[in-house]
Design goal:
Elements: E1 18-22, E2 39-43, E3 50-51, E4 62-66, E5 73-74, E6 85-89, E7 96-97, E8 107-111, H1 123-127, E9 135-139, H2 148-155, E10 163-167, H3 173-179, E11 190-194, E12 208-214, E13 230-237, E14 256-260, E15 280-284, E16 304-308, E17 328-332, E18 352-356, E19 376-380, E20 400-404, E21 423-427, H4 430-445
Length: 455
C-alpha cells in the first residue's frame, strides 16, 4: 500500500466495525462513512497531518495510532463516550486532542509524544474521574509533575488498575509511592517505574512486579506497603545510593530480584538471606561490590544466579555449593576473579554454567566434572585458562560446549570423544585447534558425533 495516495472509491460500509490501515506513507486523508466502527488502528501513515473524521465514529471503543510523524491533532473526540482503549505512540508533531472525558477508558497508553502537554490538556484532572482503568502506560514525559494530593485523588479511584508503566516520567514516582502508604491498589499486578524503556514486561496473575529507579535511601519506600504482594523487583540504584534500601526487606515473597547500576554499593545487606522464596538473583554493574554476604547461603530455593560486571569481586564463597537447587550460574566481566572455590559441594541440579570475560581466571576446579546434570557449558574470553577439568569428559549429560577466546588452552578432556550427544563449538582457540586438529576432525566425522567444532 506504499503507493496509495487517495482512498479507493467504494460503496459505503455502514456496518464495518473494525478497520486497520498500515504502511500508507502517501495517504493524507482517511475517509468518513463508518458510523458503526468500533476498532481503528493506524500505523505508519507518514503524510497524515490532521484527523477530524473521528467525530463520525461515535461507537469507537478502541483507537491505536502509531508512527505517524506528521500527525498534529486528533479533533472531534468529544463524542467518544464509548472509548475503552486509547493508544498513541511515536507521534513527534502531535500537540492537541479534543477528548473531554476518559470516564469509560480501560487502557490508556501515551508513548513518545514530545510536543503533547499532558498537564495543559487536562489529562491529569480527567484521570481523577477514571474508575474503570486497568492499564496506564506513560512513556517520555520527563517534565510531567503531579502533587501527592492529585495523585491520591486519581489513584484512590483506580480500584481496577492492574498495570502501571511510567517510563521517563521521573517526577511521578515519588508521589505515587507516597499514595501507596495509604492506598494499596488491590488489583495491581505490574508496576514499572524507570528512566529507560524496557521490553521486559511480564504480567503475573496475582502478584506485583516492580521495576524501580531509586535515587535516595528512603526513595519510593511507599512501595513496601505492597509487601507480600510483590514477587519480582528490578532495582536500579542512583550513583548516590551506597547500600540497598532497608524497606525492601518487607518484600518477603520475592521470587526474583535484580540489583543494577550503583557505583558506590560496596556490600549487600545481611537480610538478603531472609528471602526464603527467592529463585532468581541478578547483580549487574556494581563495580565496588567486593564479596557476597555469608547470609546468602540461606537462599536454598535459588535456581538462577547471575553476576555481571561486578569488577571488584575477587572470589566466590565455598558456600555456593549449599545452594542445592541452583540450575543456572552466570559469571561475566569479573576481571579480578582468579579462581572458583576448590573445596565446594558439587551443584547436583546445575544445568547451565557460563563463565565469560573473567580475564584473571587461571584454572577451573575439578568438581566441575562432577555435575551430573550439566548440559550447557560456555567458556569465553578466558585468556589465562590452560586446561579443562578431566571430569568434563565423563559428563554424559553435556549437550553443548562453547569455547571461545582462550589462547592458552591446549587440550580437551580425553573423555569427550565418548560423549555421543555433545555439540562442540570452538572459536579463537588457535593453540587448541593446532595441537588437536586430527582428533577434532575424527570426532566431527564419527557417526555418533552430532555436533561439530566451529572454527
Amino acid at each position: 500500500m506504499e503507493s496509495l495516495e487517495v482512498w479507493p472509491q467504494a460503496e459505503p460500509m455502514p456496518q464495518l466495525n473494525s478497520l486497520e490501515v498500515y504502511d500508507c506513507p502517501k495517504l493524507r486523508v482517511l475517509p468518513a462513512g463508518f458510523p458503526k466502527l468500533e476498532s481503528l488502528q493506524i500505523h505508519r501513515m507518514g503524510s497524515l497531518e490532521e484527523w477530524t473524521q473521528i467525530e463520525t465514529m461515535p461507537f469507537l471503543r478502541s483507537v491505536e495510532i502509531v508512527d505517524c510523524p506528521k500527525l498534529r491533532s486528533l479533533l472531534g473526540g468529544q463524542r467518544l463516550t464509548q472509548l475503552h482503549e486509547l493508544k498513541l505512540s511515536d507521534l513527534p508533531e502531535f500537540d492537541s486532542m479534543s477528548l473531554t472525558s476518559l470516564d469509560n477508558i480501560r487502557e490508556l497508553e501515551l508513548h513518545q509524544l514530545p510536543k503533547f502537554d499532558v498537564q495543559e490538556h487536562g489529562f491529569l484532572h480527567m484521570l481523577k474521574t477514571v474508575t474503570a482503568l486497568k492499564g496506564l502506560d506513560l512513556d517520555g514525559f520527563p517534565g510531567l509533575a503531579m502533587e501527592s494530593q492529585m495523585a491520591e485523588e486519581a489513584l484512590e479511584n483506580m480500584m481496577h488498575l492492574e498495570r502501571l508503566f511510567l517510563t521517563d516520567c521521573p517526577n511521578l514516582a515519588a508521589p505515587i509511592a507516597d499514595v501507596l502508604q495509604q492506598h494499596h491498589l488491590p488489583r495491581l499486578q505490574h508496576a514499572q517505574i524507570c528512566s529507560r524503556s524496557s521490553s521486559d514486561r511480564i504480567i503475573y496473575p496475582s502478584l506485583v512486579s516492580l521495576q524501580l529507579e531509586i535515587e535516595s535511601m528512603d526513595g519510593l519506600s511507599g512501595f513496601r506497603n505492597l509487601g507480600s504482594r510483590v514477587d519480582r523487583l528490578i532495582m536500579r540504584l542512583n550513583d548516590e545510593v551506597d547500600f540497598v534500601p532497608k524497606w525492601i526487606q518487607h518484600l518477603q515473597n520475592l521470587y526474583a530480584l535484580e540489583i543494577h547500576d550503583s557505583r558506590k554499593l560496596t556490600h549487600l545487606p545481611e537480610w538478603l538471606g531472609e528471602f526464603s522464596q527467592l529463585q532468581r538473583l541478578e547483580l549487574v554493574r556494581l563495580p565496588e561490590l567486593r564479596s557476597l554476604p555469608d547470609e546468602m547461603r540461606s537462599l536454598t530455593q535459588l535456581q538462577s544466579l547471575s553476576i555481571t560486571r561486578v569488577k571488584g569481586l575477587t572470589h566466590l564463597p565455598a558456600w555456593l555449593g549449599e545452594l542445592s537447587q541452583l540450575r543456572s550460574l552466570k559469571l561475566e566481566y569479573l576481571p579480578l576473579l582468579r579462581s572458583l572455590p576448590d573445596k565446594m559441594q558439587p551443584l547436583l541440579h546445575l544445568r547451565s554454567l557460563r563463565i565469560n570475560k573473567c580475564i584473571g581466571l587461571r584454572h577451573l576446579p575439578e568438581w566441575l566434572g562432577r555435575l551430573p546434570n550439566l548440559a550447557d557449558l560456555e567458556l569465553r574470553s578466558l585468556p589465562g585458562l590452560r586446561s579443562l577439568p578431566e571430569g568434563l569428559g565423563r559428563l554424559r549429560s553435556l549437550r553443548l560446549v562453547r569455547l571461545e577466546g582462550m589462547a592458552e588452552l591446549t587440550s580437551l578432556p580425553n573423555g569427550m570423544r565418548d560423549l555421543p550427544e555433545l555439540q562442540l563449538h570452538i572459536e579463537d582457540c588457535n593453540e587448541l585447534l593446532q595441537r588437536n586438529s586430527n582428533v577434532i576432525e575424527r570426532r566431527s566425522a564419527g557417526a555418533a558425533w552430532q555436533g561439530h567444532p566451529t572454527v
